[in-house]
């Protein structure tokens, strides 16, 4: 009788342990699935941009004409997606990923602070504004995503953005310069559910080598650097 009772107790204990283990595995799988879902998301960034632009134009021999300008204001919008590179999170909360940027558009306007050969020529241009538009397609780079609690997410990334860069004037008639630029971004963001806010540095260089219109406002090697503050919708 005692042996039968002992076998019954052991059987019940084993069944209870197995049920608890199964429940734990199910809860863990659900947690991993939720974290993976939060990591593997597309997101749209809308932000404010501050930046500088420098263009060095060869004149004669080694003589160069350098234009430097600080943007009066700027805006940006981009659409990207994160792809996690492993199935289960590291330490139950960390995902490594690849960020793919389908399109990134950055616009800045110059006019109040344009410097040529160390001389501020803003007043000499008659109020003419210089417009700077960068359109980046199919950018990519590594990213790290940490989800310490609930819907809170911490994100860090580096991206390379192949870019078509243009500088143009549009007061009297449209005249512009166009060329290719390699742009890099380095940033971090904090998210809660579908909403996030972030900060990133943006820098790179290239060359304006083609005209849009009768003449080019600038021509030569370009470099740009700045920062962007943005808010995001992650879905």
Give the tally of structural domains.
1
Radius of gyration: 27 Å
Q: Going across the major beta sheet, what is the strand order?
A: 1-3-4-7-8-9-10-11
CATH level-two architecture: Beta Barrel
Shape: elongated
Spans with pLDDT under 50 lasting ≥5 residues? 23-27
Characterise the protein shown here.
The chain has a single domain (40-234), classed as Porin (Beta Barrel). The chain has 235 residues and is of the alpha+beta class. The chain has an 8-stranded antiparallel barrel with strand order 1-3-4-7-8-9-10-11. It is 16% helix and 61% strand. The chain has one helix at 2-39, and strands at residues 42-58, 64-70, 73-84, 94-110, 114-116, 119-120, 130-146, 152-169, 175-192, 195-212, 220-234.
What key phrases describe this protein's structure?
11 strands; single chain; 235 residues; 16% helix; alpha+beta; elongated; Porin; eight-stranded antiparallel β-barrel; 61% strand
Outline the secondary-structure elements.
Blueprint: H1 2-39, E1 42-58, E2 64-70, E3 73-84, E4 94-110, E5 114-116, E6 119-120, E7 130-146, E8 152-169, E9 175-192, E10 195-212, E11 220-234
Antiparallel strand pairs: 1-2, 1-3, 1-11, 2-5, 3-4, 4-7, 5-6, 7-8, 8-9, 9-10, 10-11
């Amino acid at each position: 009788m005692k042996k039968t009772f002992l076998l019954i107790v052991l059987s019940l204990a084993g069944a209870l342990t197995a049920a608890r283990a199964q429940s734990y595995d199910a809860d863990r799988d659900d947690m991993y699935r939720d974290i993976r879902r939060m990591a593997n998301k597309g997101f749209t960034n809308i932000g404010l941009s501050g930046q500088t632009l420098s263009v060095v134009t060869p004149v004669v021999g080694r003589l160069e004409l350098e234009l430097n300008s600080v943007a009066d204001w700027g805006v940006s919008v981009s659409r990207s997606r994160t792809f996690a590179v492993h199935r289960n999170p590291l330490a139950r909360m960390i995902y490594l990923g690849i960020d793919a940027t389908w399109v990134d558009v950055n616009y800045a306007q110059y006019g109040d602070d344009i410097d040529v050969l160390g001389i501020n020529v803003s007043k000499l241009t008659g109020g003419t504004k210089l417009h700077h538009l960068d359109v980046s397609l199919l950018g990519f780079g590594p990213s790290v995503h940490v989800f310490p609690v609930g819907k809170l997410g911490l994100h860090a990334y580096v991206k390379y953005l192949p870019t078509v860069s243009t500088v143009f004037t549009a007061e009297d008639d449209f005249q512009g310069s166009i060329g290719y630029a390699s742009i890099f971004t380095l940033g971090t963001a904090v998210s809660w559910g579908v909403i996030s806010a972030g900060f990133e540095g943006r820098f790179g260089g290239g060359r304006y080598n083609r005209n849009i219109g009768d003449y080019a406002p600038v021509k030569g090697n370009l470099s740009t650097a700045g920062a962007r503050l943005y808010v995001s919708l992650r879905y």
